[in-house]
Design goal:
The chain is α+β, with helices and mostly antiparallel strands. Among the domains are: 47 residues, Ubiquitin-associated (UBA) domain (Helicase, Ruva Protein, domain 3, Orthogonal Bundle); 93 residues, Tetrahydropterin Synthase, Chain A, CATH 3.30.479; 41 residues, Orthogonal Bundle (GTP Cyclohydrolase I, Chain A, domain 1), CATH 1.10.286. The protein is built from 11 helices and 10 strands. It is elongated. Keywords: Cytoplasm, Elongation factor, Protein biosynthesis.
Length: 291
Amino acid sequence: MAQVTAALVKQLREMTDSPMMECKKALVEADGDIEKAVDILRTMGVAKAVKRAGRDTNEGTIATYVSDDAKVGAILELTCETDFVGTNPKFTGFAAELAQVVATSDPADVEALKACPMNGATVGDELTEMIHVIGENMKIARFQRVSAADGALGGYIHLGGKLADLVAFKLSDDAFAASAEFKAFAHDVAMQVAAAAPVAARRDDVPADVIDHELAIYKAQAAESGKPEAIQERMAQGRLEKYFKENVLTEQEFVKDGSLTISQLAQKVSKTLGGQVEVMSFVRYTFGDAE
């Protein structure tokens, strides 16, 4: 009898998106022949998953989860074949459950997530079951766990799950997280992230290569003016400042009130709460942008 290795079991699982134990049983029965094992899996009731495993999944949704204490959260993109399924409450509810598993289990990658416990089984088993129930191929495209140990998280979902984000805030008092003022502020900032697509939360977080690239363009533009080098430098720096104001979250004008920047809005809510509220970071997903 041929030896059924872990690598062979993994290969069959990737081919069929079937549960690990079922793959192992099929390979044992097929004496290690992977093609025969596929046929055995089809007769064992996972034929739908096998048939659909190669289908394109260009539709789907983005789900978020934030824990009750707002300290831990996750954002996850789940894909399917059609927009009809992508907006199905069963599908979107499953995506939300997966985001919660990411937050609580902190898996390293998609394969690790599939091995995480869920509803008395594993995520991989539940995913296969959903493929059976709904009748379309599905894939976990990407996910990220987010934490705010010194503060709280806020989130926003837009366009029926096609755009979503989580924002981390630092709070001088954990009690602020439960206040109506902070919740409204966190929602507004998360909405700002969705609408204005900033490149970073704070100026110091803008990657150096992005700054160098922008500055090089502005210097080249300034050189076209024919003005003295000192003036060209000031022109380039001025345009870089404008870039920061347009693309750094805390420096952007608040979309609901252009008289305030997000930083000034944070100062306003800080004064109301009698402490300090700071915007620290964010994660923003647009559906279909997974690498």
